[in-house]
Write a structure and sequence with these properties.
The structure is a homodimer of 140-residue chains.
Chain A (H helix, E strand, L loop, with lengths): L3 H7 L6 H13 L4 H11 L5 H13 L3 E4 L7 E4 L5 E5 L5 E4 L3 H13 L3 E12 L1 H8 L1
Parallel strand pairs in A: 3-5
Antiparallel strand pairs in A: 1-2, 3-4
Helix pairs in contact in A: 2-3, 3-4
The first copy, chain A, binds a DNA duplex (25 and 25 nucleotides) through helix 4.
DNA sequence: CTGGTTGCAAAATTTTTGCACTGGT
DNA sequence: ACCAGTGCAAAAATTTTGCAACCAG
């Protein structure tokens, strides 16, 4: 995804420089907190206000351009909307990695929902642990 | 679990009645935000301070007596530590229900972690949708 | 043009902290 | 009796809001 203008317009949002910058930095970094986004965007667009970041994140989450990823013990992060996936969350460095492989688990989730008469809408899987890079650092 | 005193002492925490009250209301209600806990505890123990609730939740999460359950678009909730399970989160009424049935998904999670050389520690599955009760209300 | 968007500053909310006092062990 | 734990009030951090100026369509 590089055509943020189209993405925004498709979702009834004006393509302002501020919004495009927010999408760019999130796309580049994968998963970012509000503060992370602010610090990155300000490098490119120094006059942007934190309030604008907040307003736009809320708006873009409503419009489902962005998805909030809540993380145990941390501020939530935001990512671009994409197919459902698993998050590998490193508790050492904080990095979040996406893994697209929910076919098997999805079957379980749907079976469970059916059994419980629960109208399933969204799945969210976070696996917490230590990523390969951080294991190596600790070993040395 | 009703012996909160033992639970606390086993985790090097003094068994104050503020802490016992916090554990009681969480046990009774299942999943509660800081504010929920405060509002319930204050009924039993009107002089308790919100700061005490915060301090104790942070402490009990560190000691793994409590677990933080982050939820998309909401304040995190807290539950008593127990075997890993799936959360059914109703986006209408906010209720969270536990389902103990992660045998199949656990295999997938472990296989994925092994493949990625990720040292898996904790699994967290939230399914968002509409619970049976809320479906009935909407239908009528 | 014009209605949505921005930046700023102020307000509201949420969480943390310092400290004298209290209460479990 | 000791020291962790408490309550309070103040501080810090985070998020929201109102509004005049601005700009994308």
């Amino acid at each position: 995804m590089t055509d943020y203008v189209t993405l925004l317009k498709e979702n009834d949002l004006k393509a302002t420089f501020q919004r495009i910058s927010i999408l760019e930095v999130i796309d580049r970094n994968g998963h970012m907190s509000v503060e992370d986004i602010y610090e990155e965007v300000i490098k490119v667009h120094p006059s942007i206000s934190l309030a604008t970041i907040y307003k736009n994140i809320i708006l873009m989450v409503e419009k489902t351009v962005l998805v909030e990823v809540p993380i145990t013990g941390k501020k939530p992060k935001y990512e671009l909307s994409k197919a459902d996936h698993i998050h590998l969350v490193c508790t050492e460095c904080g990095e979040v990695e996406d893994k697209m492989c929910m076919e098997t688990t999805d079957k379980v989730f749907h079976a469970l929902s059916e059994k419980e008469h629960f109208r399933l809408n969204k799945r969210q899987v976070n696996l917490y642990g230590i990523c390969e890079a951080c294991q190596e650092v600790k070993a040395s």
